[in-house]
Amino acid sequence: MSNKNNVVEMFDDIAPVYDKINRRLSFRTDIGWRRKLRKAVSQLPHDKIIDISSGTGDLAIELAKLNPQKLVAADPAAKMLEIATIKFKKRNIAAETSVCYAEALPFDSDSFDLATCSFGIRNFASLEKGLAEIKRILNSNGHAAILEFGMPQGFFWRNLYRFYFNRILPLRGKRLSQHQSAYSYLNQTVNQFPYGKEMEAILLAAGFNIVKTRKLSGGIAWMYIVKKS
């Protein structure tokens, strides 16, 4: 599923059950990961925030606790953002939404203090172009905060997680979502995507300085805080 339009169509298809499935498959651990990102960026400039690949808006909802002057949830999947909008209204969150690809963000250069992306950067059609766009829209003191999957480091946990992730998760995801390929796609992209030092090297090459890299849950997820250089 390399075509970016096919990927967007897939996320639109599973949008109504996306939140419920994520909670079940992650055993609600994803909620804590987003909370840790919000705490990690709380001391950084955050008057104007854009959450890229925002999906159904979970991270944007967490970031709203920072009381930014402007909060934008951006995602190419319109049906995902429709659900995000409903969630924002229920919580009285004044967030804007923008249906757009990360590789072509419809915002002026130097217009945000903070850009975030949780578990969506591996879905960029072009990681290089997406990171270039993030750098472009950040101001001179701007930061980006990224959450993405990786692999646990310890031998025992790494192999146990791989068994769950490669054998059990795709089958459970397929049953819960009633979608033929969505959670096989998740499995494939996570297995192929760089993390740790390899991801740091990509971020450095894209023109960012590494502020902090943190393993979460033993390395199942990774958090990268970077500053525009």
Characterise the protein shown here.
This protein is an alpha/beta fold and 229 residues long. The chain has one domain (4-11, 27-152, 194-228): Rossmann fold (3-Layer(aba) Sandwich), CATH 3.40.50.150. Helix content is 46%, strand content 22%. It is built from nine helices and seven strands, in the order αααβαβαββαβαααββ. It has helices spanning 4-14, 18-26, 29-41, 58-63, 78-90, 127-137, 155-177, 182-192, 197-205, and strands at residues 48-52, 70-75, 96-99, 112-118, 138-149, 208-216, 221-228. A seven-stranded mixed beta sheet has the order 3-2-1-4-5-7-6, sandwiched between helices. The N and C termini lie far apart (34 Å).
Quickly describe the structure:
The protein is 46% helix and 22% strand. With 229 residues, it is an alpha/beta fold. The chain has a single domain, classed as Vaccinia Virus protein VP39 (Rossmann fold).
Observed structural traits:
229 residues, 9 helices, alpha/beta, Rossmann fold, 22% strand, 46% helix, 7-stranded mixed β-sheet
Radius of gyration, whole Å: 17 Å
**Gross CATH architecture:** 3-Layer(aba) Sandwich
Number of helices: 9
Distance between the termini: 34 Å
Give the overall shape: globular
Q: What structural class do the secondary elements suggest?
A: alpha/beta
Residue windows where pLDDT falls under 50 for at least 5 positions:
none
Count of β-strands: 7
- Share of residues in helices: 40-55%
Helix and strand pattern: HHHEHEHEEHEHHHEE
